[in-house]
Amino acid sequence: IYSNDHLKSQKHKLASRASLQSGKVSNFFSKLITDKNDFALAAPEATFAYHTVIHNQSFRSMTCTSDLIRQLLNDKQFTCAKTKTREIIVNVIRPGLKSYFCSQDSSPKILVDFFKNDKALLYMKFIQSMLRLFNIYIQKIEGEHISAFKLIDILNSLINNLENKKNEHFINSEIENIIKVLEEEGCSIKKEFDTGSQIFFDLCIKYIQKWTMPNQTLLTELDWLNLTKKHTVTWQNAKNTLNFLSELVLLNEDDYFDEFMSFLNIFQEKFYFIGTKMVTNIKLFKEKDVSISNLAAVVDFAFCLPGSSTSIERVFSLMTSTWTDVRNQMGVTTVESCLITKTYGLSCMKFHDEIIKNQSFLKNVHSTQKYTMKAED
């Protein structure tokens, strides 16, 4: 009687419902024995990993691909995202191909020498760490609204970073462990690697300094407009800017002097101006109907200088990756359509979520009219 009452109780019903809806703990552990179903899943995962590398796609793209396969094809077991794809390439496919290349008589000598060189992994790891550093700064440079002033600050920060690594003979723990293993195996590499890394840092620093040198004169003359150093906001520096821009910007020197002195008086009284944007301060003057047309012209010129041409180059880069030697039969309309699609900005999953609600769009996708209404290439 007690058992029947318990089975009918609300507590038991809730517990039963919860057990049916909850996953088993065993689902989070890999099986010790691999069966044919596991092999059937491993084959497409390895193939997609191989496909990613062969077609020069990023590992990150596999995160999107994996999500799409699970949702659109209802294959919930396919989980070959970025990390798994990389591990399959590095720890499964690479060793197999490495053995294959080394065993072939006709393999390229450069590959065989690389695979057999005990130092290869060490230098590859060093290059990888440096590429990661440069990529961080490239992303900063390619950010939106980067002025020439900001660009110089970013590059100076990179130079300081490289100089610090050089002066401290910095290597990360992974590289340090590789050196330790090589030294224990009798390969004297530490001194050679240190010398090579020092040369690398020197070359990088000299290259960046040489690359920024053409802009240094211009930015030095305009540096006081940053308002980051109070002692630089002087009439002498403002006059130097006037002389420097005399052939580029039409200015009235008398009015420019009066406008600058008006600004200087306020700037010296209001310490909170330090570090604020000059453009913001110019707007405040305009709101109070203070005539600063000449000073505003200098500010407009200084802050309209782009830090880089990445926004334009990005379009050409997209075009280059789209219209390649292999894909050279596409017409102008096709290339234009690909560029517009690439710059749309939605992830694949969000794109799917958007179009699934748009019946008109889906009707056009399904209809055969898409073949007759296309523009001529």
From TrEMBL:
InterPro entries: RNaseH-like_sf (IPR012337). This is Protein FAM200B-like. It comes from Aphis craccivora (Cowpea aphid).
